[in-house]
Specification:
The complex is a heterodimer.
Chain A lengths: L1 E12 L2 E12 L3 E5 L6 H8 L7 E6 L2 E2 L9 E4 L13 H7 L2 H4 L7 H13 L15 H14 L4 E5 L7 H18 L2 E5 L3 H7 L2 E6 L1 E6 L1 H4 L2 H8 L3 H4 L4
Parallel strand pairs in A: 3-8, 3-9, 6-7, 7-8
Antiparallel strand pairs in A: 1-2, 1-4, 4-5, 9-10
Chain B lengths: L6 H26 L5 H19 L5 H22 L4 H23 L6 H6 L7 H30 L1 H6 L4 H23 L4 H15 L3 H26 L3 H35 L1
Helix pairs in contact in B: 1-6, 1-8, 1-9, 1-10, 2-3, 2-4, 2-8, 2-9, 3-4, 3-8, 6-8, 9-10, 9-11, 10-11
Classes of the chains: A alpha/beta, B mainly alpha.
Chain lengths: 246, 280
C-alpha cells in the first residue's frame, strides 16, 4: 500500500522555482530518508506534504487521498525542525506532548484516561517520563526536541514525518533516537519519512534514500545512493566535511 | 459592606467579578501567542465607536456601536494577520492608529455632547447600568462556553499554530472566533475598566501568574483568581477613595505582579546562596 505519493510536483515562491518535477512514493512500513544540501527544498517539500503550503502544480496523496481533502491527520506524526512554542510560557513537557493526541481525541472532546496513557507512553519512549511535569523552558535543547518527538508519537501515527529531528539532540541520545525509529518501524509498522544530513547513520536506518536538490536527483537503496560519487555530486566536493559518513 | 446598599455598586461588583474572569481567561491565549498587545489595539479602536455614538447623539446605543466597531477592528487584525507579512506589533499598531484617528475625527465633529467620555476612557462605578450588566453576562457566558468546549484546541493553536494545522484542527475558523470573542470582551469591559486599561486587565494577571505558575493550566487558573481579586479589590478601593475604577483594578493587579516578582527574586537569591554554600 502506498502511504505517500508525490506526483509531478512543482512549487514556486514569488517568481522563483523552488521544486520541480518531483515524483516520489513512500510504501507502507518503509523508512525513506530524504537528503540534500541546504536550500535544496527539503523543508518546503515536507510542508507541501503536510498541506502547510499549496502546490503550484502536481498532486500529493496521503493514504490515497489528495492532501487538500485529507481529514485523517491523526494518522500523521510530524516533528518540525524548530517548534514555534513560546519559550517564555511555562508549559510542561506533558502539556506539549498531549497536543499530539488532540487530533485523535477530536474537537470539543476531553482527553480521557487512554489518551493520557498514550502521552505517558510516548514520553517514556523518549526517556522523559520522569521530567513530564517540568516546564519545557527548563529542559535542554535536546530534551525539548525529544518532547516534540513524543508529541508526534502520542497520536499513535501510521506515518512519522521528521524534518531534521536530530538537530539539537546530543550525541548520547542520537543513537537511542535512531534505535527508537527502527523499533517503531519494526514492531509497530510505522512508516517513517525522515529528512536528515546524517548520512553515516542513514545507511543502516533507511530502506530507501532520495536525494533532492530542487529536483529529485536520485533514489534507491542506501548501497546504491550513498556512494562517494553521488555524495560529491549532491553536497559538492567537500561532502566528507559537510556530512558524517560514519 | 455599606457600599452594597447602593445598586450601582452591586452592579459594578458583579460586572467586575465577571470581567475579572473572562479578561485574563482570554489574555492567556493572547500572551502565549505573543499577541498581548491586541486587547489594547482593539480597545483603542473601540474609542471610535464611542466617538461615533457621541456624534450621532445616541448615548443609549453607544455600547452596541462600540461592539460593532470592536468586531470590525478585530476582523481587520485577522485579515492583516493572515493576508500580510506584517509582524504582530506592526499590524496591531496599524489597526490601533486607524481606530484612534477615526475617534479623534468623530470627537471633533461631535463638538461636545451628553456622553461621558471619561467613563469610557478610565472606567467608572456609576455608569454600569442594567443593560451593560446583562451585556457583560451574556458575553461572559459565550466566552466561557467557548473555552470549556475548545480550551485544548485553542491552547494548541496559540502555542504552535503550524503543528495544530498538521493535526487537522480548523485553525483559521477557531482563530476568527477567538479574535471575535476578544473584541466582544474588550467592548463590554470598557464601562468598568476603561478603554485605556482594559488591555492591562487581560494581560497583567497572566504576567503575574507566569511568575508563579509551572504549567499552562496553573497559569490559566491563577490568572483567573488574580483577575477576580484585582477587580473586586480595585472596585472597593475605587468606592472608598473616590478614584477611577480602571486605574484601581489595574494597580491592584500590578501590585500582585510586583509582589510575586520580588518573592521570586528573593527566593532565587537564597537558592544561589545555598548552592554556593554547598560548593564551599
Amino acid at each position: 500500500m502506498k502511504v505517500l505519493q508525490l506526483q509531478n510536483i512543482y512549487f514556486t515562491y514569488s517568481d522563483r522555482l523552488i521544486l520541480e518535477d518531483i515524483d516520489l512514493t513512500v510504501e507502507n512500513g518503509e523508512i525513506l530518508a530524504l537528503i540534500g544540501p541546504n536550500g535544496s527544498g527539503k523543508t518546503t517539500l515536507v510542508k507541501l506534504m503536510l498541506g502547510l503550503l499549496k502546490l503550484t502544480q502536481g498532486e500529493i496523496l496521503l493514504f490515497g487521498t489528495s492532501v487538500d481533502q485529507f481529514k485523517e491527520w491523526h494518522r500523521v506524526g510530524y516533528v518540525p525542525q524548530r517548534a514555534e512554542i513560546n519559550g517564555k510560557f511555562p508549559v510542561t513537557a506533558r502539556e506539549v506532548a498531549a497536543t499530539g493526541r488532540f487530533g485523535r481525541v477530536g474537537l470539543c472532546h476531553r482527553m480521557g484516561q487512554d489518551d493520557w496513557e498514550a502521552v505517558e507512553e510516548a514520553l517514556d519512549m523518549v526517556g522523559l517520563l520522569s521530567l513530564q511535569h517540568q516546564p519545557i523552558v527548563e529542559l535542554s535543547g535536546g530534551q525539548q526536541q525529544r518532547v516534540f518527538i513524543a508529541r508526534a508519537l502520542a497520536g499513535k501515527p501510521d506515518i512519522l514525518i521528521l524534518d531534521e529531528p536530530q538537530v539539537g539532540l546530543d550525541d548520547r541520545y542520537i543513537h537511542d533516537f535512531y534505535q527508537l525509529l527502527l523499533q517503531l518501524n519494526k514492531e509497530q509498522g510505522i512508516t517513517v519519512f525522515i529528512v536528515s544530513h546524517d548520512v553515516g547513520v542513514l545507511g543502516s536506518l533507511a530502506n530507501r534514500i532520495a536525494c533532492l536538490n530542487r529536483r529529485l536527483i536520485c533514489q534507491g537503496s542506501p548501497q546504491e545512493i550513498l556512494t562517494a560519487h553521488n555524495l560529491s555530486y549532491i553536497y559538492g566536493n567537500d561532502y566528507s566535511t559537510a556530512v558524517n559518513l560514519g | 459592606m455599606g457600599m452594597l446598599q447602593y445598586d450601582f455598586m452591586v452592579r459594578a461588583l458583579i460586572a467586575g467579578l465577571v470581567i475579572g474572569i473572562i479578561c485574563p481567561a482570554l489574555g492567556n491565549f493572547l500572551v502565549i501567542r505573543r499577541y498581548a498587545f491586541m486587547a489594547d489595539a482593539i480597545s483603542h479602536v473601540c474609542l471610535a465607536g464611542v466617538a461615533i455614538g457621541l456624534w450621532l447623539g445616541a448615548a443609549s446605543y453607544t455600547p452596541f456601536l462600540v461592539i460593532v466597531i470592536a468586531v470590525l477592528g478585530a476582523m481587520a487584525v485577522d485579515y492583516l494577520r493572515t493576508h500580510s507579512s506584517l509582524s504582530p506589533d506592526a499590524l496591531l499598531a496599524l489597526v490601533m492608529s486607524g481606530g484612534l484617528a477615526l475617534a479623534v475625527i468623530f470627537f471633533g465633529l461631535a463638538k461636545g455632547g451628553a456622553l461621558d467620555i471619561t467613563s469610557y476612557l478610565f472606567g467608572s462605578l456609576m455608569t454600569v447600568n442594567n443593560s451593560d450588566l446583562w451585556l457583560i453576562i451574556v458575553v461572559a457566558v459565550i466566552v466561557l462556553l467557548f473555552l470549556v468546549l475548545l480550551y485544548k484546541e485553542l491552547y494548541f493553536i496559540c502555542s504552535d499554530e503550524q503543528s495544530a494545522r498538521v493535526a487537522g484542527l480548523p485553525v483559521d475558523r477557531l482563530n476568527r472566533v477567538f479574535i471575535f470573542l476578544v473584541a466582544l470582551t474588550v467592548a463590554v469591559s470598557l464601562r468598568v475598566v476603561g478603554t485605556l486599561l482594559v488591555g492591562a486587565l487581560m494581560v497583567i494577571p497572566v504576567l503575574a501568574s507566569l511568575i508563579i505558575g509551572r504549567s499552562f493550566k496553573q497559569v490559566f487558573y491563577y490568572s483567573l483568581g488574580l483577575g477576580v481579586i484585582a477587580a473586586v479589590l480595585g472596585l472597593v478601593s475605587s468606592y472608598q477613595f473616590g478614584l477611577a475604577s480602571g486605574g484601581c483594578i489595574v494597580l491592584v493587579a500590578l501590585l500582585f505582579f510586583a509582589l510575586f516578582y520580588m518573592v521570586k527574586w528573593v527566593r532565587t537569591l537564597f537558592k544561589q546562596h545555598s548552592v554556593l554554600k554547598d560548593v564551599e
